[in-house]
């Protein structure tokens, strides 16, 4: 087990006058376990400006390695958990995001929503009450003004700011709805993610990005045609958690590229390739 004293000695050697010694210390720090990033962060606070830059590089590298490990673990073990998947994506930019505290916020929203549905029996009345709760009372809305802002893709920031893109707004809608057993599911139409309410042979589509607009299957097909896609049944099946997470990563690639953060976009592309190769290997061994 690597001791704190050993890590501190490597940090001090980073500032050594001998470039070979400093380089060796840097390489050894880069090879540490991701769990040591927090300890290095503690010693970064009192470091000189040059050392802070080097330590930032080490911390970022270790955290990225740890993040890759978490992504692999999710797709290997928790790949059907929508909520954990959404917060896994959030950890790319917010490594210290508190999953438990946000989960509790969603719990409280579900408690509030349930109260509004006690007297509702008709399906359309239920959906109307749900939509009023989300889009009027809570104020969730689509970010039309800055669609490619990265924070639109991070569920913690969507909950904080009440704005997002179709997939993250749909996720909040679904995660709260499922807590009170509403039959709501994600539909990964190309170009526009939506929600389907489906129960006892009845189905209707809900567009959280546009204030909960209700759509029939035919209206969804018209929207697909407007977006340049030929409608087909596969576009209307329930999205899996794995598909949702991969799509969120893909949205972030576009968002970061659009805002000039090429390095972050490239890291996300690496993650998507890793996930795709992992899925291929998983299917090959079934």
From TrEMBL:
Pfam families: Transglut_core2. Coiled coil: none annotated. InterPro entries: SirB1_N. Residues 102-249 form the Protein SirB1 N-terminal domain. PANTHER family: F-BOX ONLY PROTEIN 21, SI:DKEY-261L7.2. Belongs to the UPF0162 family. This is Regulator of sirC expression, contains transglutaminase-like and TPR domains. It comes from Candidatus Thermokryptus mobilis.
């Amino acid at each position: 087990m690597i001791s704190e004293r050993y890590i501190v000695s490597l940090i001090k050697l980073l500032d050594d006058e001998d470039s070979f010694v400093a380089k060796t210390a840097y390489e050894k720090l880069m090879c540490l376990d991701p769990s040591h990033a927090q300890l290095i962060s503690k010693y970064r606070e009192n470091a000189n400006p040059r050392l802070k830059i080097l330590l930032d590089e080490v911390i970022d590298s270790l955290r990225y390695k740890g993040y890759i490990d978490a992504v692999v673990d999710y797709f290997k073990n928790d790949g059907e958990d929508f909520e954990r998947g959404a917060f896994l994506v959030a950890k790319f930019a917010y490594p210290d995001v508190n999953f438990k505290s946000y989960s509790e916020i969603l719990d409280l929203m579900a408690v509030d929503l349930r109260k509004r549905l006690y007297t509702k029996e008709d399906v359309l009345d239920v959906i109307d009450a749900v939509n009023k709760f989300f889009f009027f009372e809570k104020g969730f809305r689509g970010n039309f003004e800055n669609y490619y802002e990265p924070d639109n893709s991070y569920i913690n920031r969507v909950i904080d700011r009440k704005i997002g893109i179709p997939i993250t707004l749909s996720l909040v809608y679904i995660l709260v709805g499922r807590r009170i057993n509403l039959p709501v599911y994600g539909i990964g139409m190309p170009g526009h993610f939506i929600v389907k309410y489906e129960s006892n042979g009845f189905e209707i589509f809900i567009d959280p990005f546009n204030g909960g607009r209700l759509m029939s299957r035919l209206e969804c097909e018209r929207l697909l045609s407007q977006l340049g896609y030929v409608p087909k049944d596969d576009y209307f099946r329930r999205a899996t958690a794995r598909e949702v997470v991969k799509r969120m990563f893909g949205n972030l690639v576009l968002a970061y590229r659009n805002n000039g953060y090429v390095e972050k976009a490239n890291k996300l592309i690496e993650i998507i390739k890793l996930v795709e190769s992992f899925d291929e290997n998983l299917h090959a061994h079934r």
